[in-house]
Write a structure and sequence with these properties.
Layout (H helix, E strand, L loop, with lengths): L4 H30 L5 H4 L2 E2 L5 E2 L15
Antiparallel strand pairs: 1-2
Length: 69
């Protein structure tokens, strides 16, 4: 007596799921190995006094204290 077609399909679907899971894990490891980093400092952008976006932080000007009379 031959096995039913449903049992064969269940096995095939399980194999496909397992293969997709392994492929996904492999891609994840590849991304982690090839990442250039994503620290906060490298993602920061600043706006200068002319309204342009720059990658360097603005220089701090000396703050004026309260004026005395």
């Amino acid at each position: 007596m031959a096995k039913s077609q449903a049992t064969f399909m269940k096995k095939q679907l399980e194999k496909n799921r397992q293969k997709k899971k392994e492929d996904k894990e492999h891609r994840k490891q590849e991304r982690q190995q090839n990442s250039t980093g994503g620290d906060l400092e490298s993602m920061m952008a600043y706006v200068n006094e002319f309204g342009e976006i720059v990658s360097t932080p603005p220089e701090k000007a000396p703050e004026k204290g309260p004026e005395k009379k």
